[in-house]
Amino acid sequence: MSNPTNKKALELLFERPLEPIFTARDDGKAVFDIPDSFYSEQYSDVKEDIQSRFSEDVDIKIPLRELTKKPDLTFTHPVGKRKQFSLFNSLHRSIAARLIDILLNAGDEDLFIATCAYVKDRVNPFLFQYCYAVAVQHRKDTKNFEIKPIAEMFPQNFVEPAVFKDARAEGELVRNTGDRRHIDIPRNYTASDREEEQRMSYFREDIGVNSHHWHWHLVYPGYGDDEIVKKDRRGELFYYMHHQIIARYNVERFCNGLAKIKILNNVREPIAEGYFPKIMSSLNNRTYPGRSAFTKLHDIDREDAKLEIADLERWANRIIQAIDQGFVTDTKGNNIPLDPKKGIDILGDIIESTQLSVNPQFYGSLHNEGHNAISCCHDPDSRFLEDFGVMGDVTTAMRDPIFYRWHGYIDSIFNRHKELLSPYEDADLAFQGIHVSKFEVRIQTASQRASPNTLLTYMEKSDVDLAAGLDFGPKGNIYATFTHLQHAPFEYAININNADNVPKMGTCRIFICPKSDERGTLLTLNEQRLLAIELDRFTVNLVPGTNNIHQSSNSSSVTIPYERSFRKLGPKYQPTDDRQLAEFRFCGCGWPEHLLLPKGKPEGMAFDLFVMISDYTGDEVQQTKDQPSVCGDSSSFCGLKDKLYPDNRSMGYPFDRRLPEKTLVELTDKFPNMSMIDVVIRYNDVIVDRKA
What is the Cα 631 distance to its own chain's centre? Predict the structure, then answer.
């Protein structure tokens, strides 16, 4: 457990990532007292003046330990301090893995903090913040410390640049933070309505969506010590989390009158979609490069990245051949079967790819290098000295329409494996003696009882604090207001009859499926299962007779609350209960709660709401560690911290494989432990202010 001084030091290392370590932080109240040897060459001659200037009028001075042996950081030089850092770049990943190893092995907590302070000013700021955050998450002495939301550390990656000019001016001119106005982030600033893909900008450019993607890759790094990489079902989780994103995106397209994405399965074909992100890189004050419509992919020949487009085709063909054969071949020539239990996990590590790939030389790095090829297509040989585009950065990739076409292709490869598995049999789906006798959903209102099975969405205005990421900027909070989709809270009511004379345990699984596509054509069950959106999964105790289950949408196993996506930091905003505090610190990983439901349509859009009670004897996971689960409320996408994935079934069950019936109605009629109801999602085209 950290002492108060170390907690403060850990917090301050997340603040103002571009400022030198010796500047004042926490609104000018705190400063690090660093040894002379920590000053970089740039400031070593003026350190006395710096010490005098920044040590005045501060409340807290945090002394840092001298390092008897300083780490050799020359290996980080290929990622220059003003270059962009990318987890999709193999050289950058290997550099990050080495730096994470240094931070993880830095003795006790005092030594860790001192090492981080020494490293910070000597390496690329994005590289440092990523490695520092990974180390904090995975060290035993700091793993319960909160990770500051990425949108607050590097707001330039999420917010239109003109906002920062107004924010800095407001901070300098209005000294009292309570009197500062909230700067409005404009909607639809990346394209006009002449571009039909702009109908999806509220989803792609949502701050919570992009923060989730960054935090997931923080919790599940692909390279480094086995202790932080080799996590339970990591490859399968890579598949499932991205599969659900693609399902959600396609359903969201139906809501906006657009067809499903056209997957990017031909890397020789020009990319029809252009994208001009209009966000700044805080490292070099340049905007992320745009991509014109109908740009072609070319071989990459840059200083830190080499790739032939033919490599992508070759790797994809080898993976598809392995799927068709039913096995992959490791580096020793052993054939490893792609069975229903482990096959998807093996493929996830291969396709992403991570250091867990059974044969990285042969199967390559399809997912990562696809990101690189797209992100550098505007300047593949660096002749114009342009940095990579948004597809090269996990904090920004989901803004680009091509992300969904590329991941749609990746998902189709995974689904090829799933389609080759035998359909679920009756024994896989039934739960003897359990009958769902009633199922409905209602909006939760304070005044009157809402009509059942009609859900409501609308637009909401909320705030994000930019202060921590405004380097060399004014003191105090500076809020920006952004507009996002939101839904009225709702509750499931499920009546379950246990016909046996003994109590039973089950897992309640809730999915929502579109009934039809953008043209109104009804979808088959196999089409629906690929578009099934998981809404919740939770354990139920079933006594003999009737059981009345009520579950709020706020308790979803998929999402994290708004307060965790855009939380305020500091002791006065933290829970005092030990368990709630542990969850608060870890739980930045999870789908944003405000996007739990699809948007729907103003006239209402019809969906099938599906519930299944599965037999817990087939669901149960025997955890090897007995400590209470931290952040279990987003376990579907992020697993459990330091534990096994909490569901023994395949992720997405029962929709991950083909099913024995032709329609969802036939399926639920056959199995009494399942039920389906018609629901309507109605979008109300208004913008409301978020309640405090």
Answer: 14
CA gap 536, 514 in Å, rounded: 17
Residue 221 is which amino acid? Answer: P
384 DSSP 8-state letter: T
- pTM beyond 0.85: yes
- AA identity, residue 604: G
Distance of alpha carbon 592 from its chain centroid, rounded? 9
Catalytic residue from among 352, 534, 583, 593: 352
**How big, in percent rounded to 5, are the helix, strand and coil portions of the chain?**
35, 20, 45
Round the CA-based radius of gyration of the chain to a whole number and report it: 25
Concerning whether 352 is annotated as a catalytic residue, the answer is yes
| CA 659 to centroid of chain Cα atoms | 29
Secondary structure string (H, E, C) spanning 385-414: CCCCCHHHCCCCHHHCHHHHHHHHHHHHHH
Q: Which of 568, 621, 556, 622 is nearest to 593 (CA)?
A: 556
For the domain covering 4-145, report its CATH number: 1.20.1370.10
Q: What is the pLDDT of residues 476-509, one digit of tens each?
A: 666 778 899 999 999 999 999 999 999 999 999 9
Looking at domain 196-420, its CATH superfamily turns out to be Di-copper center containing domain from catechol oxidase (1.10.1280.10)
Q: Which regions of the chain carry the CATH code 1.20.1370.10? A: 4-145
The number of helix segments (H) and strand segments (E) in the chain equals 23, 20
Numbered ranges of CATH 1.10.1280.10 in the chain: 196-420
Answer yes or no: are the C-beta atoms of 563 and 529 closer than 8 Å.
no
The full DSSP string for 240-287 is HHHHHHHHHHHHHHHHTT-PPP-----TTS-B---B----EETTTTEE
pLDDT tens digit sequence for 208-226: 898 889 889 888 989 988 8
Strand partners, 498: 434, 545
